[in-house]
Amino acid sequence: MRALISVYDKSGLVEFATSLHNAGVKLVSTGGTYKFLADIVRIPVDMVSEVANFPEILEGRVKTLHPRIHGGILARRDQQSDMDELREHNILPFDIVINNLYPFQEVASKPGVTLEKALDNIDIGGPSMIRAAAKNFPWVVVVVDPLDYPWVSDRLLEGQLSLEDRQNLAQKAFSHLADYDASIASYLYDNKPFLSKFNLTVSKTADLRYGENPHQTAALYRSDTSVRIGIPFSELLHGKPLSFNNILDADSAWKIVNDFPNMAAVIVKHTNPCGLAS
User: Fold this and answer.
1) What is the pTM of this model?
2) N or C: which end of the chain has fewer CB within 10 A?
3) In the chain, where are the structural domains located?
4) Which residues belong to any copy of the MGS-like domain (predicted)?
5) pLDDT per residue over 239-270, tens digit each?
6) Is residue 139 within 8 Å of 103, Cβ to Cβ?
7) Is 70 a catalytic residue?
8) CA dist list (Å): 263 to 189, 210, 278
9) Would you say domain 202-277 falls under CATH 3.20.20.10?
10) Domain made up of 2-189: CATH architecture
11) 67-106: per-residue pLDDT in tens?
């Protein structure tokens, strides 16, 4: 087996890469990830430029965008013509792609960040590899979240990673890409009014005790691109977890008190204010 590793967030990578290496998986990597694995973790790893037989160019902007890389990811193992073409061009397939992306949103949200700095943090090769691996998930395992490293490693090495597991990882990869692209589009949107189309990126914060009625289920989501204030970003200091109606009432109270320039308190029941003091 061969694994292609190119990550910005190296959380958990030491254990994951070491586990793969000890199981006989051949590791291939890029730039900073290569140096991390070779010099710090000290495990054998091939540089992607050696596999592609083409150097990194444009100060690292082009590293993995090469047929020898993407051919190895996209080849369908059950299509004889695909495998014949790989052999014809001396391309070895990749079985695992481990990737996460430049922190565009983190950089772009910093006060005073320049357009040039923001654009430099738009990942190109990473999304291309993730998309290719996710498209070919029946044959290639794609991992974008370091929290998935332990269970993926265990199931891979035990031969227990199912097609359903692979599909779930692919879905997570495409969702990761959608969130990433949405954050870039939101940044470039730059408060222009009434676009013909815009994307919202939200993440689940919690499963709620129940929905509007006790027999219903509900969950709380919050925007990944908005200012981090309001009830979805609040911390529960005491008491049991909130229900759907609790969230609605808390949000209503939050909006009401924010209309006052000084400190204010409000009592809300079923989204209606019952008492207010300022």
Assistant:
1) 0.75
2) C
3) 2-189, 202-277
4) 1-144
5) 888 888 888 888 888 888 888 888 888 898 88
6) no
7) no
8) 34, 32, 6
9) no
10) 3-Layer(aba) Sandwich (3.40)
11) 889 999 999 999 999 999 999 999 999 999 999 888 887 7
